[in-house]
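Let us work through a complete example step by step.
Step 1: write down the sequence.
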Amino acid sequence: MSLGKITSNKSIPIKNVLNRTSIFTPVQKQHLNLKVSEDSPVLFEDNQYMLTMSGSRLNHTWDYPLLALVIKHWKNASQSGVDDAEPVHISLDELSELYKRDFEQKKRRNFDPLQASLERLQTVCINLDMKKAKVTKRGALIAKSEFHYGEDKKIIVWIGDLLHELYSDHKDQTFINIEHFVEVPTERSKALMKYLSTQSDQFVDFKFELLVQLLGLDQRNIKQDARRDRRYIVEALNELVAAKFVTAYQLNNKMNWDYVRIIRHQHCADPIIAQKLIETKTSNFDFFKPNKDKQKPTTNNYPLPSATPSNSLFK
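Step 2: predict the structure and record it as tokens.
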């Protein structure tokens, strides 16, 4: 079944494995091109995936939007009946518009961030265990690329085997608004936005430990500090509220909270109604209760100590 032509950057089909794991993690600017050793790879595991990743560390500011644009052009070519959908051609003008940057095309050095991003997407080494399918996939996302900065200003990209395998069907993917994604200010808020985009309105409660993994807070070479990590998560949530992606959120405890309840803008744009949903909506933890005798979060936990968008708990 064809998905039809992708006509804008506001609805690009991104496989959920790229959104729900740590393939893309928040990276500080000075660490963008640092390699990840095979001796200490990026690690991630939940009930669907187990991931180890070495080589290049992929980020949200450059790498995720670039890959999304590659996927858009690749899938459009595939669905239009073109005999050979590869390589993918993307003009530098289109990239400039997406990133909201003037690359000053006469100066080659201004292309450096894009060239570095292409290199990272080619040199990352991903080992991905798909638990439900009982299949392990390994490879990079891009096989090779060319950067044309002369008269014909464009990039040319060949798709990697891993991406080919992930897109062998139309299952388990989310349509991502990349334009909105690019506008979100920080790596951490982009990481959280990417993950939350994959969740239905039935999912409102999110565990602290999972958010720590998704935001890459467990991959830093510094001592773990739960209080600091909670502060980072709250800061990211506040940025998503300002970006009108999250309407309201609330922590289940004032200080040492272990999960947060989130109402997203696409499900409820009214702050007053969203606050009522926070106080009354059934927890998704109830659907995945591992032990019936084990105490679980219920709606009786709400209302809770205030942790609304005006949160000043960590300031």
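Step 3: interpret the result. The longest strand covers residues 49-56.
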